[in-house]
Amino acid sequence: MPDPRQQSEDGEFEGIPTGRGAVTWPTASPARAGARRRHDEVMSLDPSLDPQAGTTGPAGGDRQVLHGSFTLPLDLAAPPDRVFAAFSEPSLRTRWFRVPSEPGASHYELDFRVGGHEIAEGAFAPSGVREQVGYRSRFLDIVPDERIVFSYEVILDGRRRWVSLVTVELAPDGGGTHISRTEQYAFLARTGDGQQDVAHLKGSIRLQLNGLAYVMKAP
């Protein structure tokens, strides 16, 4: 599992829930205009991000889905509106949310609204074999400065590994914010009994939250 204290060379925290560790890379945030067109192109033209139903398990989907949930808390000195901005503004979001990728092989976009989406794509070779990683989410409920609910899926080499429903709750705590992040996951393609995958997921999300804390401390 990645070390939650690990930082990249530019001082920003690494960590992505891919189930295979954490890698960081520079990413750009395109303007919201055209995001819908790009989203449709990705979904329709990139086979690695539009897997067929029969690819959800190690042998065509014949293993039982692994369900579970966990909640991770975080206390920040920043007020709720500033923490909310770290989720809703691409320039802040990309400082603590990444997917693994080689330089020049990544794509990121954020359409932060109910019915909108977040897409992150990348390619990397952790063991000498190049792998394609895709993350895509859809926002289901947004209450400014209070709550964000979204679903997401992670696709590795054309196979949908897992899907999750996430609820992020922000509560004022003195002059700061208490965050409660609850994830309900369903691993569709897992390694062995799936416990290693769950451990990687929890560790990666904790790494993300550590990165959020680091960004909130920046001036």
Outline the structure in words.
The protein has four helices and seven strands, in the order αβααββββββα. A hairpin with a 6-residue loop joins β2 and β3. It has 219 residues and is an alpha+beta fold. The chain is 21% helix and 33% strand.
Give the SSE layout.
Elements: H1 35-45, E1 66-76, H2 80-88, H3 90-93, E2 107-110, E3 117-124, E4 131-143, E5 147-156, E6 159-173, E7 176-187, H4 195-217
Antiparallel strand pairs: 1-7, 2-3, 3-4, 4-5, 5-6, 6-7
Residue windows where pLDDT falls under 50 for at least 5 positions: 1-62
CATH homologous superfamily designation: START domain
Major pleated sheet: 7 strands, antiparallel
Shape: globular
Radius of gyration: 17 Å
Record keyword descriptors for this entry:
single chain; 219 residues; 4 helices; disordered N terminus; Alpha-D-Glucose-1,6-Bisphosphate, Chain A, domain 4; alpha+beta; seven-stranded antiparallel β-sheet; 33% strand; 7 strands
